[in-house]
Structure formats: structure tokens, C-alpha cells
Amino acid sequence: MKTKAILESSASNCHPASVPDYLPLDDLRKLQLQRLRAVVERSWENVEHFRARMDERGLVPEDIRSLEDISKLSFTVKSDLRDTYPFGLFASPMKDVVRLHASSGTTGKPIVVAYTQEDIDVWTSVVVRCLAGSGLHRGDIIQVAYGYGLFTGGLGAHYGAEGLGATVVPTSGGNADRQIMLMKDFGVTAICCTPTYFLHLIDRAAELGVDFKELPLRAGVFGAEPWTDSMRRHIETHSGIEAFDIYGLSEIIGPGVGCECRRHQGLHIFEDHFYPEIIDPETGEPLPDGSEGELVLTTLSKQAMPMIRYRTRDITSLLTGRCDCGRTMRRIGRIGRRSDDMLIIRGVNVFPSQVETVLLQIEGTLPNYQIVLTREQGLDQMEVQVEVTPNMFNDKIGALQGLQSKIQAALDHVLGIRVHV
Amino acid sequence: MKIQQLSLFVENKPGHLTAPALLLAREGVDIRALYLADTEQFGIVRLIVSDLQKAMELLQANGFVARITEVLAVEVPDRPGGLADVLGALDGSGLNIEYMYAFPYLCGGKAILIFRFNDPDAAIAQLQKAGVNVVAGDELLK
């Protein structure tokens, strides 16, 4: 009965997957508590690391009796994933894991995440909700220009766009000329990629004599890196599309943790699956809605690799008040900065400590180095300037150039992106 | 027999050559020969100086990256074909010339070329066998 009423009261083309977006708050909170207790129980039963953390605090799953009790639990941080590489945080046996993804960690080894079939279905449904909230539907032709592979961006957007019932063009990243040709020839109506890559496409298209404003392209769902309102205005002015900010991280699920609706007043977090908290990054104390702090997320339905109170290092706030779109899912403000030193270059996470590790391995001792970041033609560029020390200095030009190439190759390999040395 | 050459690392940017040049000038170090090898981003300045020890200490104390490389000063007939004759003496020896440059002054009326060989000792032997004169440092810098 309730579902029908919701469907009738909300916007005319509400996709069935979007129904939970409008859950009455009482129902939502009851659902969240039920799922929280289940995920704590599941993690306690199956994940040694998590059980040990609870034991340290003298906690058992029964101690979680209200949503506020979540603050009794320890945080999970990125190094926990690194330390348990590769499969130490899994709560499901491998035979139930149908997908593995990986993203960069602070040292050479990646962060591994896992999905059961149900997890994939949940992931698909939240991305459907993102795209539906952006006004997309069956009949749209959606180009997915996020990288396909271990990175969660490409496949996440793909499954969501397909789940929506749209026509998917899986171009992955790169080859701008071909992307533009297909956008034109296929009559693409929406694109999913990083905002800076889209800026690059706009510029390249202009060089090729293609004006995005004249194409059927009407929406872009951009994420994997922070971007400003001025960048949004630039994108919208030069392409004639409506630009949407999508949020996600592999540790939680991938893209689809949250997304802007057509009101563009913050990003709705799909909190029936991802319970958000804002904490003081220094003290770890939870802060009330409206205060700025570090976003912490708890997965309420993930099976293979649940995350309890994961510190995202992203600084934002949970907005108070109800969005005009009618969704009861709380919104976060757009992410502007991080509380650690991670860089995002062309959508890829890069840590200065990775550069250090490479230099240490090649040189034996760590020379002074600088990371110089610029933006050329809309794309992030990273240059690593390495000081030549007396030890490194060789009278042969070829040897120094060889060293330069060696560092370059090692950095490309470890970071996963091309940098200048 | 081997000459001590000073190799200095410099960034390929305006002004980066001036600083070491001024430094050496201030302390009275005389540059007798110079060869600047370049890439897009950096260069190596190879110097034969009047007081190597002083030059090395000065440069290193002032944060420059320098090292000493052994090169040979080879007497070459100052006429067309002089170089070709010397290179002919090296034929079949397997020796590799990494770089070379001219010494600006005549030594005993003869032209001098500075050679950097991959194996300086073997080069000395090979050249002397062919009757080519390798000039010692003190003779060169007189």
C-alpha cells in the first residue's frame, strides 16, 4: 500500500528502483537499525579483524540496540584494508564471491574489495537510483567513459546504466577522438566520466569542429574526483548539458554511494544501504547534521566485505532539511577536500608515499623530490622532480637519462598513470 | 697519464651555468678546457681546471653536484687527417669513445684532443703501441 502511494505521489516517471529514496523516515530508521544489527552480527561472526576490535572494547553484537549505538564501534581505516591484503576482511567464502575489484593503496599493493551476487545487485540498484535521479531512463543512450577493469568506475556505471534499461556504450577511458565520434554518430544522450575528462572532450571536440550544444547530449554524471561549482558552470555553458555529481568509493561499493538529484542541492546518500556519519577528524566524536567534518560510512547490506564505520577522509557535512525533490535520503555537501594527503590525478588515487617508495627502491637512499601538479588542456598532469645527489650523478649523459627512464617506468607501474620525471 | 676532469651537473635553465662559473672565478680557479653536453632537462659540464682539488671543494661546499672522471689528452697532428689517423690507431681494439672535445691550446706545438674512453688504461696501451702520444696532466696544464 505504502509503495503504491509513494509511486503515485512522486514525480511521474519514478523508476521502481528509486522507491526507497522516498521511504518515510520512521520506516527508514527502522530498516537501518535492522540492517545495522545484521551487519554487525555478520562481521563479528565472520571477520576476525572486526571481532578483535569489538573484543578490545568488550562489545558483542547485542550491544547495538539503537542507531546511536553505532558510535560504540571502532572505525575502519584504509590501512586496515592494506594490512589484511588480500582477503582478510571477507565475510563470505570465496566461492560466493563473484567479483573482485582493486584500487590503489598507499604502498605498492592495491586495496581489494569483493562482491557476492547480491552485493552486485545492490550496487547495480544504487547506480540505477543515481541515474534515475538525474532524469535518465530507458531510451537514453549512455556512454560510459570511466575506465573498465579493476577500477570500480567503469563496471559500476555500466551495470547501473544497463539496469536502468538504457542503451550502454562502453567506451572506457581514452581515445578522445573516437569518444567524440561515437557521441555524434550514436546520438548519445548522457555520459559518465570524470569531470576533467569531459572538459578535455569539450576542448578536443571544438578542435574537431564538433559543438556539444548541437548534439542530443543532455546529461553528464561526473565523479571519481572532486570538482567545483565553477567547473560545473563551465561544463554546462560549453556543452549545454545538465551536470550531476556522483559520489562513491571502492571500499564502500564503488560509484553510487550518493548522487545529486535535479535540484543540485547536495548529494543524496542512499542511506538504506550506506549509513552516513560526520565525525570530528581529530577526536572521532560524531557531529550533528549541519556540522562539517569527516564522512564515515557503514555498509548496511554488503555481504562479501562489510565495512563498519569506514573513515573516508572526505570532508563534508550532512545537510539538514528536506530536499524539494521529495527524497528522504539525507544529502551531503559537495566534497571539496580530504583530510589526508591523497591526490587525485585524472581520477586515479595517488599518494606521495608511493613516489617515495619507488625512489627508495631505485636509489637505495631517498633523494629530495618535489611533486608538481598542473592542469594542461583540462587534464591533470603530475611531474616528479628528483634532486640529483652526488651518489646518483654519473658522468655519462646516457646513464642519467637511463635513470630518469627507470624512475619514470617504475612510477608509471606503481601509480598506474603516466607522470613526467 | 690520465687527466682528472671535473664533471658538473646543471639544470637546463637560464642562469644555471652562471652560478658555478662565478664561484670558480671568485676563487681564482682557471678553466683550461670545457665541454657542455646537454639534454632537454639537464646538462653535464666537463671542465679541465687549473686547481682540481680547490674546484671540487668549492663546488661541493656550495651545493653543486660534481665528480671526477679520468680522461686522456691525446696529441693529434695539426693537419687534415690528424684525427682520422688517431682513430685509425683504435680500430679493432674494441675501445669505445664515450665523448671527446678539443683542448684550446697547443701543447709543445701539437694539437690536443681530450678523449673519454670506456677503458682508459687499455686505451693508453693501444695508443702508445701505435706511436700516438698521450700527454700527462702536469705537461698539459703548464
Structural description of this entry:
- The complex is a heterodimer of chains A (421) and B (142).
- Chain A has 11 helices and 18 strands.
- In chain A, a hairpin with a 4-residue loop joins β7 and β8.
- Helices cover 33% and strands 22% of the residues of chain A.
- In chain A, the strands form 5 sheets. Chain A has an 8-stranded mixed sheet with strand order 4-3-5-6-7-8-9-13, with helices on both faces. In chain A, strands 10-11-12-14 form a 4-stranded antiparallel sheet. Chain A has a two-stranded antiparallel sheet with strand order 1-2.
- About 2% of the residues of chain A have low confidence.
- Chain A is globular.
- Chain A folds into 2 domains: 340 residues, Rossmann fold (3-Layer(aba) Sandwich), CATH 3.40.50.12780; 68 residues, ANL, C-terminal domain (GMP Synthetase, Chain A, domain 3), CATH 3.30.300.
- Chain A is an alpha+beta fold and 421 residues long.
- In chain A, α8 runs parallel beside α9.
- The relative contact order of chain A is 0.12.
- By secondary structure, chain B is α+β, with helices and mostly antiparallel strands.
- Chain B folds into 2 domains: 67 residues, VC0802-like (2-Layer Sandwich), CATH 3.30.2130.10; 70 residues, 2-Layer Sandwich (VC0802-like), CATH 3.30.2130.10.
- In chain B, 30% of the residues lie in helices and 40% in strands.
- Chain B has 5 helices and 7 strands, in the order βαββαβαββαβα.
- Chain B is globular.
- The two termini of chain B are 15 Å apart.
- At the A-B interface, α11 of A face β3 and β4 of B.
